[in-house]
Backbone:
């Protein structure tokens, strides 16, 4: 009997858990050719979400082609172009002959080389030139989606996974400008860009000075709610003839704090231990302890990469601390001075294997309605807004801030401070 719980791979069909509102949102954007940025920690299911919506849209509308590109292993611009072109041509062709024909038709000037693997019957293209030797080479590849769309009279959705990796290229800012200058001109193509490093992606898409500022809608994936996990776990147990109570399904979700990957993993371990008579709390506890033992080496390796202060900082986060600059917190967790907090936060976020939620509300997006060109910087539990003097308008600067949850306004600090907020105050919509 196959296990009813899936993790570490793309979840499809009955293995896909909820995400109803996110699915509807992304499907609407794909159909309307609206650029979308998806941000979530690793293993929260963003790739499965994109894959599901891609299948839905492609099945229901034959005039839309969805191309999925994974640039996780791309470390240079040249590698990006090759993977980008391969993925696009494979998505828009169905057989080997069409692929080869497409390569010749669209990329013939770039001296492409097409090879096929006898063992796997897969085919790939590469390029026999140095991209730096041809000024037009990257232009042709970056415009390839629009060219194919025009040629086929279809709409194309290009989805790029681990998009933040472009920051590792030799000249990341110049490359971003290059991408934006081409993609913003495409009329029959939209782009879905997603990744797992929140701080890097926010810098790319939410920083006024960056090329991709306001490129599209930003979707933050949240954890799946406990109630959804309860019904999902119970349903998957039932589908295999095994029984589990809602209480124990909830206990599984609680122990994993609703984390999609680990909730599925623990559910599988519990399912293995559940007899025909039904699941017991003992089964859950045994599975949980066994899973912790399995992951202990992984956790130990992660801890080994951290400094003592970084470990203490994460302990404070786990304890629900929000005011990290207070003397009491600094002393209790041995964090040093308040000046250390920003560096500790940055260092822990930049470690690829470490993700955590900042306690309290989160800002989903912000935009300038009128006035000067504002800059916004997020810290832990706080954010700073500034309008550089050279950029100030004669009228007031008005910003719209969108939060994940209802806000509790406690005033602000600064020269333009009053009991309600900055200047003329805060208006809640």
Residues:
């Amino acid at each position: 009997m196959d296990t009813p719980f899936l993790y570490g791979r793309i979840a499809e069909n009955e293995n896909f858990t909820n995400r109803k509102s996110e699915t509807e949102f992304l499907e609407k954007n794909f159909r309307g050719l609206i650029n979308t940025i998806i941000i979530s920690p690793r293993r929260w299911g963003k790739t499965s979400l994109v894959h599901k919506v891609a299948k839905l849209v492609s099945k229901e509308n034959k005039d839309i082609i969805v191309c999925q590109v994974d640039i996780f292993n791309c470390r240079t611009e040249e590698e990006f172009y090759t993977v980008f072109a391969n993925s696009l041509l494979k998505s828009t062709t169905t057989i080997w002959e069409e692929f080869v024909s497409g390569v010749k038709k669209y990329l013939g000037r770039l001296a492409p080389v097409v090879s096929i693997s006898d063992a796997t019957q897969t085919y790939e293209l590469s390029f026999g030139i140095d991209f730096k030797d041809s000024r037009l080479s990257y232009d042709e590849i970056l415009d390839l989606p629009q060219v194919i769309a025009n040629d086929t009279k279809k709409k194309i959705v290009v989805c790029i996974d681990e998009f933040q990796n472009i920051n590792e290229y030799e000249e990341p800012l110049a490359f971003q400008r290059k991408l934006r200058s081409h993609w913003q001109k495409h009329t029959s193509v939209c782009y879905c860009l997603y990744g797992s490093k929140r701080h890097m992606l926010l810098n790319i898409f939410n920083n006024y000075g960056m090329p991709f500022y306001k490129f599209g809608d930003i979707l933050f994936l949240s954890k799946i709610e406990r109630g959804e996990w309860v019904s999902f776990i119970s349903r998957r147990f039932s589908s295999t003839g095994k029984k589990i109570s809602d209480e124990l399904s909830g206990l599984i979700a609680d122990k994993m704090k609703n984390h999609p990957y680990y909730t599925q993993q623990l559910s599988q371990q519990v399912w293995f231990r559940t007899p025909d008579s039904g699941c017991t709390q003992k089964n859950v506890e045994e599975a949980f302890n066994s899973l912790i033992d399995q992951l202990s080496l992984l956790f130990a390796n992660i801890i080994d990469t951290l400094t003592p202060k970084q470990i203490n900082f994460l302990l404070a986060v786990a304890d629900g601390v929000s005011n990290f600059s207070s003397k009491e917190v600094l002393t209790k967790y041995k964090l040093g001075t308040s000046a250390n907090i920003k560096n500790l936060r940055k260092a822990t976020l930049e470690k690829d294997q470490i993700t955590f939620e900042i306690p309290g509300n989160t800002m989903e997006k912000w935009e300038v309605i009128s006035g000067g060109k504002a800059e916004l910087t997020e810290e832990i539990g706080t954010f700073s807004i500034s309008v550089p003097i050279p950029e100030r308008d004669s009228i007031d600067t008005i910003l719209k801030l969108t939060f994940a949850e209802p806000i509790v306004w406690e005033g602000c600090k600064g020269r333009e401070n009053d009991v309600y907020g900055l200047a003329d105050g805060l208006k809640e919509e």
User: Anything to note?
Assistant: Residues 305-350 form one domain. The two ends are 52 Å apart (CA to CA).
